[in-house]
Design a protein that fits this description.
Elements lengths: L1 H12 L1 H4 L2 H7 E8 L5 E3 L11 E14 L2 E12 L4 E14 L2 E12 L1
Parallel strand pairs: 1-6
Antiparallel strand pairs: 1-2, 3-4, 4-5, 5-6
């Protein structure tokens, strides 16, 4: 399960996936909510995309635990690297994944900036 969820988290950070509403729909549940590192609360709209140019992500310290049957909690650190000025913002992230029709979909995500 851990390898599967890590792969899904990596897909959500992929620029090709982030700019495709259809690909995001495969990974995010209709009930998806995010507590953003900015303090905003985002509720999923199936037409939304999250593409950012000149940004890459590096996942570290990834762990995944089964909360109960069909639910998993992923936690990790991510470095968001801005290629234009070579700066990095780091955050601690957590995601809850739910098995829906034999596919894992993210239902909740939270990012907290590291200063």
């Amino acid at each position: 399960m851990e390898e599967t969820i890590l792969n899904l988290e990596k897909q959500l950070l992929d620029p090709i996936v982030r700019k495709s509403a259809d690909k995001l729909k495969e990974l995010l549940s209709d009930e998806f909510v995010e507590f953003c590192s900015s303090g905003e609360i985002y509720k999923y709209n199936p037409n939304d995309t999250f593409f950012e140019e000149n940004v890459s992500f590096n996942i570290m310290n990834f762990t995944c635990a089964e909360l109960t049957e069909g639910y998993a909690l992923a936690t990790y650190k991510v470095d968001k690297i801005y290629k234009e000025d070579n700066t990095t913002k780091s955050s601690i992230r957590s995601s809850i994944w739910k098995l829906i029709d034999d596919k894992w979909k993210m239902i909740f995500h939270q990012g907290t900036l590291i200063k």
